[in-house]
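Batch manifest, entry 17 of 40.
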Amino acid sequence: MPTKEQILDALRTCKEPELGKDIVTLDMVKNIAIEGGKVSFDYVLTTPACPLKDGMEKEARAALAKVPGVSEVSINMTASVNKDLRLERVLPPGVKNIIAVGSGKGGVGKSSVAANLAVCLAKDGAKVGMLDADVYGPNQPQMLGVEGFKPVADQEDKIDPAENHGVKVFSMGFLMDPDTPAIWRGPMLHGAITQFLKDVRWGDLDYLIVDLPPGTGDVQLSLCQTVPLVGAVIVTTPQSIAISDVRKAVAMFKKLNVPLLGLVENMSGFVCTNCSHLSHPFKEGGAKALAEKHLIPFLGAVPLDGAVCESGEVGTPLALSRPDSPTAAALRSVARQVAAQVSLQNHRRRILDIETVAS
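Output type: structure tokens
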């Protein structure tokens, strides 16, 4: 019968691809059980949306198959999302990671990408919230199907968020007349962002996604000054005029010491529904080239698809309404890449904290 030490030694040959260390050292192996030649254990990933999960499980099975006496392997793939430890000192309680989704300019599909990112992570098993901080164009209530929600404060002046598709949602749109423009100055915006984080009962969340207004204005500054962000995702389209505005967003987040989780190239190519010909009405590759230039992860390209708009208008993001479409597959891939980058950022921060304490 194989021993526990033999099992651990075998699993030490398996590395977490993003973090670069073996899964035993990273404490990803739990509850090893050995019954004769049957070996079972819990494989605890850093996110349920891990893009490399299948390959990691296959590698572990192959490693254990080489151990003398092992006849059967049972692996329970589970996950425990790492927390941005800086959030322990600030609001909101129970939230592990806050991710900003921004863009250099409007009209690039930022809110659609944010909504699909949220439902994809939730579909993979994560606990997800959406804070719609785009006070000038709060579209998430419609996109996530909670348009008619009316927030009510309880005796503690706390508000429960809306919830749909496994995502908790709060938006400025819940508090505004849809036909009245938001004419707010910096202090009012700062107060609103702080209140949304402080007074909404978000509960336990692996990821709180914040849909920012386009550009580099007061809301971005207020959010970065109020809470530590694990990182920012920037959405753009391929054409040069959008890319030029992205450079400003990149510079802003860097100046505010917010890590860039990566760039998403939205509306990247169009597949004709009649002849299946792939064309690029807005050029191609602009975001990837910019990401390479600035050493920022490229999270993926999302095809131009009219169904994205149709799905958003009826409150069911495309990743759920048409899960078998190429666009849905691209959005799922982007979500998993974002989750991987969050895990990587938290790991790097832990290593840096350990080194700082040691020095």
